[in-house]
Task: structure prediction
Amino acid sequence: MNHGGDTIFGKIIRKEIPAQIVYETERVLAFRDINPVAPVHILVIPKKPIESVATAVGTDAEVLGELMLAAAEVARGEGLEPGGYRVVTNIGTDGGQTVFHLHLHVIGGRPMSWPPG
Ligand code: AMP
Result:
């Protein structure tokens, strides 16, 4: 099993630094964002150190599917389903990505606008 790459999220996967973990399977981990932008802000990540969806490959398809299902499961667990919520992944500098380990942001608990800035 892969135990994460050389990012802050790799350290969280390896439990070298603390995080508020809300969901964990063999291949996926979800924890609260340290700087939440909404009442609920959870990051869902693969334990495999994929940089972003842009660098994912065909053999990652199963874990990418698991990530989406985990995001929905986490949102359900946080009580976000009635009002709805947002799942977003930032890619590269223009996309606003700051941690280069693929993550889905699950954001909810307040109304959101579109398009993002
Ligand atoms: P992005 O800008 O899409 O790459 O998102 C990275 C996210 O990781 C940001 O929302 C940060 O607040 C969050 N973050 C960075 N370090 C940590 C950490 N140690 N624990 C939890 N969330 C973190």
In short: The chain has a mean pLDDT of 95. The domain at 8-108 is CATH 3.30.428.10 (HIT family, subunit A). The two ends are 38 Å apart (CA to CA). Residues 47 and 95 are 22 Å apart (CA to CA).
